[in-house]
Amino acid sequence: MGNYVDLEQLLADWLKVTLGYVNVVHEVPPNLVDLCRTNPVVVVDRFGGADSTITIDVARIDVDVFASSRDAAKLHGEAIRQAMRVRLPRTTLGGATHVLKVETVSAPTVVAYDSRNDIRRTAAGYQISTHQFTGV
After folding, report:
1. pLDDT score recorded for residue 1
2. Residue 40 contacts residue 65 (beta carbons within 8 Å)
3. Total structural domains in the chain?
4. Does residue 2 lie in a domain region?
């Protein structure tokens, strides 16, 4: 049996292509303040999930948006939520991973971050059910 796919990376790639985000990463970069001056930074990180059936992965994914203002962080957080709930289901990622369902675990919420550098953050959690077609 093959390994499960890296859903963090597949989702990051999807956000770049579908919504045009430039800075989609898996950890907060050390140059966050500089990056946020021109574009929001989106951090995609898996925080668990389950696989009750082989080839079905139910991933819990955290999506944080860092931006130069509270309004921008909220706007981008909600844009990502809308796209993930409406556009991501029924798509195929990486040529072999079909997205079955996307559920919001925790809607985008403003979270304190770095007020000294005018960086604001929203945090959201999603449960993404996928079916992997290859490697089994």
Report:
1. 46
2. yes
3. 1
4. no
Other beta carbons within 10 angstroms of residue 119's beta carbon come to 20
Which neighbouring-strand residues pair with 97? Answer: 93, 132
Phi and psi angles of residue 47, each rounded to the nearest 5 degrees, phi first: -125, 25
Q: Is residue 76 part of a domain?
A: yes
Output the CA torsion sign for 124, 129, 131, 136: positive
In a domain, 87, yes or no: yes
Helix (H) or strand (E) run with residue 105 in it = strand 97-114
Q: Which residues contact 49 (CB under 8 A, 6 or more apart)?
A: 57, 58, 59, 60, 127
Ranges of the chain with pLDDT below 70 = 1-2, 133-136
What one-letter code names the amino acid at 66? F
Range of the domain at 86: 7-132
Which domain CATH number covers 116? Answer: 3.30.2000.30
**CA dihedral sign, ordered 10, 71, 113, 125:** negative
DSSP conformation class of 20:
-
- What gap in Å lies between CA 108 and CA 5, rounded to an integer? 25
Would 33 be classed as within a structural domain?
yes
Euclidean distance between CA atoms 53 and 57, whole angstroms:
8
